[in-house]
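Appendix C: a fully annotated inverse folding record. The material below is reproduced so that readers can follow the format used throughout the book. The structure is listed first as tokens, followed by the designed sequence.
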């Protein structure tokens, strides 16, 4: 009888200890759960609207292109009098924008300059595409330039995954652009194997592009860049022997205007600048006339 009583008390004691342990354990878990931080939603979560906004900004990478260009022959026949106020020699800066202070070196020691450019037409050789199809990264080394369309190498969350390999000095380099909700914050990455040889924000590359033009002050401050045309055909895009000039408001912004001039000896004016100024690109000289 005494033995049975002792065993009963032992069993009751063990059960009480187990219940007490469970209560204490659960209380500790509840206390810890109260201190667990809640996950925060990232500000950079990408959706389709962000991608549309990105492409709109990419279309205006140099600003807003002024497409309404008028030939000024009609003025030559009128009583309007214009006088030359500036004759800007662009020949010293021809294609200089392809050689900014952004570069990497190959294992053989060749310098590869990284810049941006815009083609005069679409990658399929036509003109029926959005402006975001016309912007390219340029890679210049040993007086040769390769171009990579930005949209072809764009990586955007789960929506887009692009890359392209280029061959320089017999070495393979992989080009990627990691998109952001702001196009200027997008990151260019060039790698060789697992080694990243250059990473820069697209806004930094664009800023260097603008620096390499000549200053022009008329109604506003501009930078004028000059070089070979980038033309696309079905077989690819490359620079040809025809020349053109870009005149961009400086500093470059998404809302500033930019203008392109063909080297065809024609006097033109633009609506956003007005009829007071006529422009001619002739043999590497940008001639600016002002109405008297």
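Designed amino acids, in order:
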């Amino acid at each position: 009888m005494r033995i049975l009583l002792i065993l009963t008390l032992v069993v009751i004691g063990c059960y009480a200890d187990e219940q007490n342990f469970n209560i204490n354990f659960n209380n500790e878990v509840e206390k810890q759960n109260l201190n667990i931080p809640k996950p925060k939603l990232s500000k950079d979560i990408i959706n389709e609207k962000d991608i549309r906004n990105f492409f709109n900004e990419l279309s205006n990478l140099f600003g807003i292109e002024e497409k309404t260009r008028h030939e000024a022959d009609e003025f030559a026949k009128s009583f309007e009098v214009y006088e030359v106020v500036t004759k800007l020699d662009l020949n010293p800066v021809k294609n200089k924008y392809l050689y900014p202070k952004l570069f990497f070196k190959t294992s053989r020691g060749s310098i590869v300059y990284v810049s941006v450019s815009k083609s005069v037409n679409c990658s399929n050789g036509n003109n029926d595409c959005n402006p975001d199809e016309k912007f390219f990264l340029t890679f210049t080394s040993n007086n040769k330039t390769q171009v990579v369309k930005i949209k072809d190498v764009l990586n955007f969350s789960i929506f887009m995954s692009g890359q392209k390999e280029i061959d320089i000095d017999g070495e393979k380099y992989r080009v990627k652009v990691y998109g952001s909700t702001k196009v200027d914050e997008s990151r260019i990455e060039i790698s060789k194997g697992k080694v990243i040889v250059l990473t820069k924000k697209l806004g930094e590359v664009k800023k260097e592009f603008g620096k390499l033009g000549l200053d022009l002050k008329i109604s506003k401050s501009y930078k004028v860049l000059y070089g070979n045309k980038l033309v696309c055909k079905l077989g690819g895009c490359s620079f040809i022997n025809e020349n053109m000039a870009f005149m961009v408001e400086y500093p470059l912004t998404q809302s500033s205007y930019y203008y392109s001039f063909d080297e065809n000896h024609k006097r033109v004016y633009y609506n956003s600048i007005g009829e007071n100024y006529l422009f001619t690109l002739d043999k590497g000289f940008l001639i600016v006339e002002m109405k008297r």
